[in-house]
Amino acid sequence: MYWKSAGAVHTAKTVELAVRKAKEYGIKSIVVASNSGKTAELFAGQVENVVCVTHANGFKEPGVNELTQEQRALLAENNINILTTSHVLSGAERGISRKFGGIYPVEIIANTLKIFGQGVKVTVEIAVMALDAGLIPYGEDIIAIGGTGKGADTAVVIRPAHAASILDTYIAEIICKP
Asked: Where in the numbering of this chain does the Pyruvate kinase C-terminal domain appear (predicted)?
């Protein structure tokens, strides 16, 4: 499915398509980018393993995380794992490029993935992060959900590799994207 526009307007349909594909393929894990937790909440009870990947602490404001403690508790009550950590396709490398100028290899990977859309870049990033955190099994296809700004507009079937071998990541299918 290719959306004519990007954004949160496609969240409900993206969730529906992702869950349908997970059931069709027998995929047990969905990894979803969700800074407020609202998009992740939509996957509660839909598959065996749901992982919500948030922005890192300090993303918008030093020492602050966008996911409230109340929302964290609600996700935990719904058996949704939460991953809050540095982003694998930016993190420290972006800090170096901001300080000294230029662009570095990981940023080149991120910007190359953005050719396919912001959401595709996000899906690769969060899938690798979840794998590195041990929240999804190694060597299995999962579904990763990302977006452009707020909400979700992109879903892919992906077999992530660890960050140390990120170029071995395999996108098997794009379910939907702008």
From this structure: 14-157
The class (CATH top level) of 8-57+67-176 is alpha beta
| Cα separations in angstroms, 156 against 69, 144, 152 | 29, 5, 12
Domain map (residue ranges) of the chain: 8-57+67-176
8 Å CB contact between 54 and 34: yes
Length of the chain: 178
Residue ranges of the alpha helices (H) in 9-163? Answer: 11-25, 38-41, 69-77, 91-100, 105-113, 118-132
Phi and psi based region of residue 139 (left: phi greater than 0; alpha: psi -120 to 50; beta: remaining):
left
Per-block mean pLDDT, blocks of 10 residues, the chain (178 long): 95 98 98 96 96 92 92 97 93 82 88 96 98 98 95 97 97 98
Instruction: Characterise 138 by phi-psi region: left (phi > 0), alpha (psi -120 to 50), beta (else).
Output: beta
For residues 122 and 154, is the Cβ–Cβ distance under 8 A? yes
In one-letter notation, the amino acid at residue 35 is: N
